[in-house]
Amino acid sequence: MTQTTKNLNSSPSGAGRPGQRQRERELRKRRRARRRQLVISGVVALLILIAAVTWAIMAARESSDQAARADAHATATANAVVAQSTQTANAVNAQATANVQSLIKANPKGPDTPPQVTSPVQKTSSGVQYQIIKAGDGDTIQSGRTVAFEYTGWIKGTNKKFDSSYDHGGQPFAVTLGQGQVIKGWEDGVTGMKIGETRRLIIPPSLGYGSGAQKDQSGKVIIPANATLIFDVTAVAFTQPPQQSSPTG
Asked: Rounded distance, CA 99 to CA 238, Å?
């Protein structure tokens, strides 16, 4: 009886406190829920990272493609500008050559005396008188530009010719204005001309050679002291700085 009573009062094998199994099930359920949440959060974070990396790669490729297209467009534009500039320069050079040939044909030699000119006499601020013999239709000549001219020069009063580019085979005389390469009166007189224009300049001694006589290598006086000079000049084309002497004979 005693043994039977002890067995009846003892707890069954595996039994716990009331509600323990339910709490354990809840804990396991919560742990599983947290693990799922962590897994889901990790997957979402990974997907976001993959999307960000993919977007960055696509953006970099698009930027690279845009840069390549921009470079290609810039190169094409530059090549077109160079081609157009070359074409324009060739056309200008061809026109200038044609102008020179036409002038040489019309003037196989510089006239011995100044041809008569009836156009109105104008005056620069420095005192150079000029007459427009033939209007030009090219760009305007300004200081700093290098221009090729055909010319003939005479002494006013005697009308004696002292120099002419036509007497040198029609080789144009190139001068960079504003560099002191020619007498002051020449620079002032041709500034404002247009390419293709022919102009007569009347230069007083103060803007020419003043009281100094100009002589050739043998000592012969070519331009006397205090001479007023007459130049008929034609602006042929813009060119490069000259490598030759000034037109003084």
From this structure: 13
Q: Each residue of 86-123: pLDDT tens digit? A: 343 344 466 778 878 888 888 889 999 999 999 999 99
Residue 183 CA, chain-centre distance (Å), reads: 31
- Distances in whole angstroms, Cα of residue 41 to Cα of each of 33, 52, 55, 71: 12, 16, 21, 44
Q: Which residues are catalytic?
A: 151, 162-163, 183, 209, 231
Smallest Cα–Cα separation from 134: which of 249, 11, 236, 8? 236
pTM listed for this prediction: 0.61
If pLDDT is split at 50, 70 and 90, which confidence band does 2 have? Answer: very low
- DSSP, collapsed to helix, strand or coil, labels residue 233 as strand
Measured CA to CA, the distance from residue 206 to residue 188 in angstroms comes to: 13
Encoding tokens for residue 203? 């230069």
Tokens of 183: 């007498």
Rounded Cα–Cα distance for residues 70 and 109 (Å): 57
**What distance in Å separates the CA atoms of residue 47 and residue 69, rounded to the nearest whole number?**
32
Residues sharing a CB contact under 8 Å with residue 108, sequence separation 6 or more, in sequence order: 166
Token pair of 80 as six digits: 């077109």
63: pLDDT confidence band, cut at 50, 70 and 90?
Answer: confident
